[in-house]
Each structure stands twice: as C-alpha cells, then as structure tokens.
Please model this.
Amino acid sequence: AGTAVSTNAASSQITEAAASTGYQKTLIREVRGAADVFSRQDIEYWVAGYNKEQSEVSKADRNNVRWAVKVDSRRIELTDGRTGELIRGERIILGIPDEWAGKRILVMACLDGFNERVSQETKVGPISQGTLIRMVEGSEEVLPEREVKYKVTRYNKDLHLVSADFRNSVKWAVKVGEKEPEVLNKTGEELTLKIDKNWAGKTIVVMPHINKYTDIVSVRTRVGKIGNIRVKLGEKHYNAVSKLFEDANSSITAIFRKFEKKLFVNRIDVDVKDVEYDYINKELNLNIEADKEGLDKYGEKVFEPYERTIHEIWHKIDHLAGPSPNTFFSKAYMNELIEAFKADFRSIIGADISVFVTGDSNEIENNKYREFTEKNDFVLLNSIINAVTKGKLMYGHDEKYWNEKTIPAEIFANIAAIEIANPSASKAMQNQFSNTMKVYCEMICDMQKKEMI
Model:
C-alpha cells in the first residue's frame, strides 16, 4: 500500500463551535493532485474546494480530513507508515509504490464518507526494465543572477543498483516561461544553474532525463522580480520612506535592509482604494503622492505620511520571510496575537471585545472605547479590531476577506506601520497594549533571524 504523511499540523487541538443558527455541514467538493506519475515518486494531493467559503471552514474540519486511494477494486484508507494512525489534514504527500505501476488510481478525501466523485484520478506509468529518474529536488523560488542547485534524488531502482556511468550521463532540460525547453550542455545527477536576469517574474521547469524529458519528473522554480523600490518611488519618496525605517529601531532597520532588494513595486499611481500588496503576483501597488499626505480613499487625512505605504511594504516583507513561497511569516503567530490583543483590550475598556461586535456593550463601555480612540487618534487600531473580530466591526475589509492568512498578516502590518510611521500611536501601543507588543517584539526578533530565500 502507499504511504503518506500529512503536511498539516494535524495534532492541533483547536475546535470551533458551530453557530446556533444557519449552520451548514462542511463537505469536500474538490481534490487536486497530479494526473500522471511514476512509481517511487512522492506526490502532493490537497483539498481544493468545500461547499462553503474557505474562511468559513473550521480549523477542526480542515485538520480532520481523511484520505483513501482506490486501486483496482480495493479502497485503501491511508495511514502513517510509522504510527499506523489515520492520515488527516488538507494536504498529503503520497508515496507511489511499484505495485501501482500501469494502473489508474483514485485519490479521495472526505470528512464523513468517501465518494469517488470527489477525487483526483492519477495514471501511474508502467515500470521500465531500464533505469529511469523518478525524483529531482531544487529551490521553489529564487532571485535573478543567483545560482541554484538541482539534484536527482530517486530512480526506479535502489541507488546501489544504479551505475556511476548512468548517474553521470543524466541530461538536463530547462523550460523558461512559455518557451520550448532547451537541453543544456551539462550532464550528471547534480546541476548548478545560473538564473538569467531576463527570467525575472517567470517560472522555469527543470527536467533531468536520460532519453526524453518530461515535466512529470521536474522542479518548478519561480524566479522573483528584481527589487525596484528605489527607482520606482524616486529619490524623494524613497529617502522619506527609508528614513522612517532607519529611525524606528535597529531591528526594523536590519529587516528592511535585508529584504529591500526583493521589494518590487508595480505602480505608484493607482487609485487610492486600490492600494495593496498583491500577494499572487508578489508586487506592490501604491499611490505615493496621496500617502505622502496621509490621505484615505475619500481624500481625508487619516494616516501619518507614508503610513499606508509602509503597511503594504510590511505585507511584502511578511510574505518574503514566510517558511514557504505561499505562506506568510505571521501565520504561525495568529492565536498569540489575537489572545494578547483581546487581553489588552479587556484591560483598557473593562469589557470583552465581543460585546462591541454583538452590540451588547453598555454606555460606560462605549464611552471608554470612544474616549480611548479619540485620545489616541490612530485609525489603524480599528483595523486591528476588525482583524481580531474577523470583520465584524466592518471597518475596512469585509467578513469574506478574513482567514488564517489575512488575520495575522493585517495585525502584524498595522502594528509595524504604527511603530515605524506614527510615533504618538506607537507610544500608546507600547503603554497600553503591552501583551500585544510583547508578541510583536518576539515576531520582530524571530524575523530578523530569518534567512532570505
């Protein structure tokens, strides 16, 4: 049988109670993975859709997904090869054994009962009598003009049965963007590839082979865009933004300098309502002239100069410092941030933050909240509250925006923007949100230690 390991933190004990009204049972609607594979490959499969919005699926449900494989007429529920326990989680890595060669398998995921209509069909190629490459490893993301190492890590035979002559004869093909693959004038089971600056923003596919290359056995590497923040902002705006980072503290300065070369700005003149960090294309869209004045989308001055630009830059840095290309650094700290902020809020106002969401707050509590926000006069506090309450405050992003990625990312970016660009608000955060700032400082310390991809 195949073996699998979960890529989720399936041991999490977090549970979420269903709402007393309007509850809808969670069902899996789509499973994805590779359509064509060979035996002795490790293949990733994942849940790609539910019967509800991703943000509405509880962490308990996501961590409780079970997996099975149908081979011929047999259905095998997947277990951990070491512990014998059922594999659970939204993503798995499935090892394809030799006995599945030449067959079609169905990989299924469920929360309640397995259904073949919710599956990924995968064709497993036949076993060859000759020696074939089965797996290759290399970087998922890299900057232009860097060197990247790729290595063949598995064959269709045990390594001691693969001759040195064969391993030295491995050829390499590289596909850049939509261009036809090019076979390199290099051989051997290891490749050191210099990334051309013209490949910036493209995905390259690196394919080791003996006779014929295939993307079934390949590594996809996204080539990052060359940082252009200094050129794009212009000297005046760049110097002003850079000075704010320099004046914050030594850790903030070090983080900015470390990641600056990867800060890519697409536009600096978008409509104010469209200012964002586009995490899919990994680029910043700003309105630098409006932000120089601290203007919001209504043309009112509500921010400090460049505060919103720094907020978006911090999103990009948060993304760059993440453990993988699709994961933000701040995600690991979500629960700590939320609980710390709730505790601080309760200490200041004398009431739990939930009473302002439900409308159950009394006049004294409302007055305390109003006095606090007016006295401190920083608009990003409401943005943090909106994140903690998953959009219930209805300030800024609506409820559909909030999930495990956006909640910690927005809290982190808001606090960073306050600390860097808003001295009076920063002082209030330090004095009155001590628990929150303690978690934030731990994050800054941990981020400073992170190696840049």
Summary: The longest strand covers residues 42-50. Residues 5-22 have pLDDT under 50 and may be disordered.
